[in-house]
Design goal:
This protein has 303 residues and is mainly alpha-helical. The chain is 62% helix and 3% strand. A two-stranded antiparallel sheet has the order 1-2. Helix 3 packs across helix 7, helix 10 packs antiparallel against helix 13 and helix 12 packs antiparallel against helix 13. The chain starts with 6 loop residues before the first strand and ends in a 6-residue tail after the last helix.
Length: 303
């Protein structure tokens, strides 16, 4: 059996003839296949550096610069053993703990202060609100390097050098204009009738903010939390400026130590430590990305 079914039809002359069935692959399926193959190739290109990093953690330091392929010639676990021993007399878990404390506290401060500032700009009418909002947006155009020296002088006079206060205090003062702007735009999409109904029931700004606004802007909060956590976890310059004690170093500074401890860089340990430092970010994103997707999917239902 060929699996083909012939179709008998009659033409205008009332003569029967055999019509072959149309091929299975039509134009739409071919287009879908092409898109699928193209996206698969693009995905492979994007995730290849991560795959290479995983396999490179098993390469000895002598192979770096010689074996640039994916598979190590002499797989070893020595890189992970070196990393778990720590560096500069500080265990690895201490660097992880330092980064976790900084990232979690900074994320919490960013969400709290940015949400409160956004509520003021989006829901409270006060004199000069447009000027203050424009000034806040203008800070996005200000390069970070312009304020490095004034900030260092200020925190040095406050005797906060070699502490986490310079890294955390600005986060609780709504200095992240990007997140404030994100939440302002999100709040402006929420009907004001909800605020008016809350005021009729006797709720003030604090009750309206905590009971109404915060639950409704959850997608914006999750988005800000993801970006804030990742940016703080990967921050290298700010801890390098303000932290001087090795036992207080976060992971980005600790990774640099593997290339400074001797005259030759330990690339194997550096790659292994980099992969371990990447794991918390991946886990954090996987945990919260479903809230982000759900929030984006429901944006068209508001109003």
């Amino acid at each position: 059996m060929t699996g083909r079914t012939d179709v008998w039809v009659k033409d205008d002359a009332d003569q029967e003839r055999v019509v072959q069935p149309q091929p299975y692959w039509n134009r739409k399926r071919v287009t879908t296949l092409i898109w699928f193959v193209a996206l698969a190739i693009l995905t492979a290109i994007v995730i290849y550096p991560l795959i290479w990093l995983v396999f490179a953690t098993f390469k000895p330091s002598s192979e770096f610069g010689q074996n640039q392929g994916l598979i190590p010639d002499s797989p070893t676990l020595d890189n992970y053993l070196k990393v778990t021993e720590g560096i500069a007399g500080v265990p690895l878990w201490r660097f992880f703990a330092n980064s976790a404390v900084i990232a979690i506290a900074a994320t919490f401060g960013t969400l709290l202060s940015s949400a409160m500032a956004a509520y003021a700009f989006a829901r409270i009418r006060f004199k000069g609100v447009g000027v203050f909002f424009a000034a806040m947006i203008g800070t996005l155009l200000l390069p970070f390097h312009v304020v490095i020296i004034p900030q260092y002088i200020m925190f040095n006079r406050l005797d906060m050098i070699d502490t986490y206060w310079p890294l955390l205090l600005p986060k609780f003062l709504a200095t992240e204009a990007f997140f404030v702007f994100l939440m302002v735009q999100f709040m402006r999409g929420i009907p004001r009738e909800m605020d008016e109904a809350a005021r009729v029931d006797g709720a003030g700004h604090l009750r309206t903010f905590t009971a109404i606004m915060l639950p409704l802007i959850q997608p914006a909060l999750v988005t800000s939390a993801i970006f804030s956590f990742i940016w703080t976890w990967n921050d290298f310059l700010a801890p390098l400026m303000y932290i001087t004690s090795p036992e207080k170093y976060p992971l980005p500074i600790a990774l640099r130590l593997y290339n400074d401890q001797t005259s030759t860089s330990d690339y194997g340990a550096t790659v292994a430590a980099s992969f371990l430092a990447l794991v918390p970010i991946l886990l954090f994103f996987l945990v919260f990305q479903r809230f982000l997707v759900a929030g984006v999917a429901t944006q068209g239902l508001k109003g």
